[in-house]
């Protein structure tokens, strides 16, 4: 249960960072500080990185749960 709580905390942190980054990109685009192509490229990159981190966290969680069950 402890592992799940920690994993969820980390996922929330990642989601919050992703949302903050997307807001920053949106504001920069609205201020004409970047092109539409750049906006979409950055959003796609942020989503990709977020997904990668979520998958890594899930892999660590599964590993830890197996480790705990063996004890």
Q: How helix-rich are the residues, as a percent range? A: over 70%
How large a portion of the residues is in β-strands, by DSSP E? under 5%
Q: Provide a count of the helices.
A: 2
Based on CA inertia axes, which overall geometry fits?
A: elongated
Low-confidence stretches: none
Question: How many runs of DSSP E, i.e. beta strands?
Answer: 0
Question: From the helix content, strand content and strand pairing, which structural class follows?
Answer: mainly alpha
What is the terminal-to-terminal distance?
Answer: 15 Å
Assembly category: single chain
List the helices and strands in order: HH
Q: Which value, in Å, is the CA radius of gyration?
A: 17 Å
Return the average pLDDT rounded to an integer.
92
Biggest β-sheet, characterized?
none
What would you say about this model in short?
The chain has two helices and no strands. The protein has helices at 2-30, 36-70.
Give an overview in words:
The protein is mostly helical. 90% of the residues lie in helices and 0% in strands. It has two helices and no strands. It is elongated, with a radius of gyration of 17 Å. The model has no long low-confidence stretch (mean pLDDT 92).
Please describe the topology of this protein.
Blueprint: H1 2-30, H2 36-70
Q: Which descriptors would you attach to this protein?
A:
mainly alpha
